[in-house]
Amino acid sequence: MPSDAPVPASPPPAGYRALLRNREFAGLYAGFTLTAASSTLAGFALGTLVDERTRSPFLTAVSMYGATFATVFGALTLMSVADGNRPRRTLVLLHGLSLLGVAAQAVPGLPLAARFGLLLLLGLFQSLGTGTRMGVLAEIVPASTYALARSLMNITSGGTAILGYAVGAALLRHLSPEEVFGVAAGLGALALGAVAATVREHSIRPARRPGLRRTWRTNVALFAHPGRRALLLNLWVPNGLIVGCEALFISYAPDDAGTLLAAGSAGMLLGDLTVGRLLDADRRRRHAFALRLLLAVPYLLFAADPPTPVAATAVFLASAGFAATLPLQEQLLALTPDPVRGQVQGVESAGRMTWQGIGAAAAGGIAQYLGPGTTITAVAALSVAVTVFSRPFVVRARAIPAGTIEQ
């Protein structure tokens, strides 16, 4: 296979400590971490509450993951707010709205219909907040450390999810779901305070009125560019398909699903740490294709119904391949005009989350007929096919000028 096109060598990446010495980044990072913890606790509490009231696996699953579908609504309608000329004010406002939504879930006796409505609103606010946060991130850290900053956030997100579920399970032994919502609201309040106290207003962007028309105009221009389109395809589809494989762990091995999920989380953390911290931009780009293959190829072993230690090792190795998102995100950023960085990164994040939901739903439907093991193998093979087929377009994306996106 042809190797990825060479690029000029980059200096070794700075460390995480150097990033955290930047007061604005430290505050943005603290707000992100506390928000992730709040969301994890709130999602776990809502899933537990819905299960207790309905005993419906479908409604319980929707209560825990349904917010991902609201992110696509945000990407298609109002994501242009991420690139307003007062991003700090927007980010603080979105943090405040999310805090109110979580606090409202703590109201005892709230009808389930109202809880699901709040869930969708929270998903919308979170998607807009992600776009705004990533736009601010691109302005407060140098381009040479952007991937390192994203790596630290990815590691934190995975670690926070693991810890959040463990803490949530412990809290629910002693507290009601409504009281756990109260704890989540407290974390959200701390996140709001961290961002408000540290992030400065970045007013270098042109003044423009966000809204549906501007969001659509930017999205159309985004997908019209072949380089950005190829990168988004690779950021969304292979990852989403592999999340579909992970969604079948409980059905595949009910007694060992926890081991497989833990192996996946550990592999993802190690991959992000290695690729973001130890590799420079040149080596990240050169290893991007191999990482995209690593994401799926180990799952082909499930065709042989391997014992749990072998399956867990395969999942661990495969999950390290999620780090391929880092060089792809760097390329996408390089092809994005500065005035719409927030919206483009918000669309990328929302699309990735939505494809994870699509992958899980599709894999679950197929497994009804083929069985979990066969489905895991087939979905992984499809992920490999998408990666191999789209590789020439990703390589070619580096030679395509970024162009402009109408404002």
What is the gist of this entry?
By secondary structure, the protein is mostly helical.
Could you explain how this protein is built, in words?
The chain is mainly alpha-helical and 407 residues long. Helix content is 75%, strand content 0%. Helix 2 packs parallel to helix 7. The chain starts with 15 loop residues before the first helix and ends in a 10-residue tail after the last helix. Residues 1-13 have low confidence and may be disordered.
Report the sheet-strand fraction.
Answer: under 5%
Describe the largest sheet. Answer: none
Mean pLDDT: 81
Shape: globular
Low-confidence stretches: 1-13
**Rg, nearest Å:** 21 Å
Order of helices and strands: HHHHHHHHHHHHHHHHH
Alpha-beta content class: mainly alpha
Number-wise, the strands total 0
Percentage of residues assigned to helices: over 70%
Specify the number of helices. Answer: 17
How far apart, in Å, are the first and last alpha carbons? 40 Å
Fold blueprint:
Blueprint: H1 16-20, H2 23-54, H3 57-65, H4 67-77, H5 87-105, H6 112-140, H7 146-171, H8 177-198, H9 212-224, H10 226-246, H11 249-252, H12 257-278, H13 281-294, H14 308-320, H15 325-334, H16 341-370, H17 372-397
Helix pairs in contact: 2-3, 2-6, 2-7, 2-8, 4-6, 4-16, 5-6, 5-8, 6-16, 7-12, 7-15, 10-15, 10-16, 10-17, 12-14, 13-15, 16-17
